[in-house]
Amino acid sequence: MSNVSRAVNIADLRLMARRRLPKAIFDYVDGGAEDELSLRANRRAFEDVTFRPRHAVAVPEPDLRVRVLGHDLALPVLLGPVGYNRMMHPKGECAAARAAGAAGTIYILSTVSGHRLEDVKAASTGPVWYQLYLTGGRDAAKAGIERARAAGFSALVITVDTYVAGMRERDVHNGTPELLSPNVLSKLPYLPQFLAHPAWLVSFLLDGGVHRLPNIVVPGEGPLPLVDVSTALSRVSFTWEDLSWIRPLWPGPIIIKGVLTGDDARRAVDGGAAAVVVSNHGGRQLDSSPATLRVLPEVVAAVNGRAEVLIDGGIRRGADVVKAICLGARAVLVGRAYAYGLGAAGEAGVARALEILRTDLVRTLKLLGCGSVAALDRSYVDVPARYAG
C-alpha cells in the first residue's frame, strides 16, 4: 500500500495509482474517448485563466464553507460519480463515501457501483446523492430510485450525455471488455499485467473478482453484469420527457449532469432541475466536446440564478476550484482526482486527495487576498475573450 502522506499533489496520487493498478484498470480511470482531445482541453482551460490577486491584504484563515442544495459543506469540492470503484479497491464506493463524510462534503454514487447503494449510504457520515442512468430499462431505474429514496439519499443526479458509451480506445487496446467477460479464456492474453501487480491481484481475488452491479436489477433477470453496461446504455437513454415520470418518484432535488450549452441548461431548469452540472463526462464520451470551464459562463448566464450551477472536468488543484467559482460555479465535482487516491491506497488515498485540495484552496485564497469562497467573483481572474458568456 502506498504511503499517500508523501503525496504533494494529485499528480503524485496518480503515479501511486499507476504503480499499484494493472494497466487496464488504471487506464479505465485515466483515459478518455478517441483522441482524448476533450480530456486535454479540460486541463488547458484552467491553464488559460489567470489570477488578479489583491496584495497587502491579511487573510489569517480563509473560510472554505459553501451551501449546496441545502447542505452546509466544509469545502466546495464534491466527490462525483465514478463507475465501479470496486475495481480500483475492494472497499470502493464505501471507502470514498466514508472519506467524503469525514471531510464534510458530499459523495455522489454512480448507478454503475460495485457496492449496494444501501451499504454505501450506511458507510458515509455525510450527505450522499444518487446518480441515475436508465440502464436496465425504466422498471430497473424506478426500482433504483425507490431504493435510493428509502435509503436516505438526499438528491438525484441524472446523467444526460451517455446515449452510448464513448469510444475509449485505451480500454479496447487493453482488452478491458474481455477482462470483464465471464469467459476465462478471453482473459489469458492479459494475464501478465495482473501478475505484475500482485498486491492488487490478491485483493481483487479475495473480494471475489468482478461482481454484478447490485443497483441495476433488471426485472426477471437480476443484477446486471458489468460487461453488459455498454449494450444496456444504448437501449435506453434519457430524454427531457423522462422527467415527467421521474419527478413524482423523487421528492428531493434533481440535478442534471452533462450540460454544455445554455439551451440545455434552460431546458433542465424549466423541467424542474434544482441544479445543473457543466460536464463533458471527463472527456470520456463525445470527443471534441468543449472544455467545461470554457462554457461555464454561458450556462451560468442561461440559468440566471434559477438553479445552482456545478462543474466537473479536469480539476486537479485548489486553484482550479477557485477559478471555477470565480466564473460562477457554486462548487465543483472531482472524479479522477479522488479515484487516483482510491487506486493508490483506498480510503486513506481519497482522504489525502481531499486534504491536498483543501490545503491548496487555503493557500490560493490567502495569496489572492480573498477571505472566503463566498467572496470570490470574476474580478479575481482574467478570462480569455473566447470564453462563452
Automatic annotation (TrEMBL):
Q: Binding residues for FMN, per the UniProt record?
A: 81-83, 110, 131, 159, 257, 279, 312-316, 335-336
Positions annotated to bind glyoxylate: Y28, Y133, R168, H281, R284
Which cofactors does the annotated protein need, by name?
FMN
Catalytic residues at H281
Q: Does the keyword Oxidoreductase apply?
A: yes
Q: Indicate yes or no for the key word ATP-binding.
A: no
Q: Which GO terms describe its molecular function?
A: FMN binding; oxidoreductase activity, acting on CH-OH group of donors
Lineage top rank: taxon: Bacteria
In terms of SUPFAM superfamilies, this protein maps to: FMN-linked oxidoreductases
The residues covered by the FMN hydroxy acid dehydrogenase domain are 2-386
Pfam families according to UniProt = FMN_dh
Q: Which InterPro entries match?
A: Aldolase_TIM, Alpha-hydoxy_acid_DH_FMN, FMN-dep_DH, FMN_HAD, FMN_hydac_DH_AS
Q: Which UniProt keywords apply?
A: Flavoprotein, FMN, Oxidoreductase
Q: Which family does it belong to?
A: Belongs to the FMN-dependent alpha-hydroxy acid dehydrogenase family.
PANTHER family in the record: 2-HYDROXYACID OXIDASE 1, S -2-HYDROXY-ACID OXIDASE-RELATED
Record-given protein name: Alpha-hydroxy-acid oxidizing protein
Recorded source organism is: Candidatus Segetimicrobium genomatis
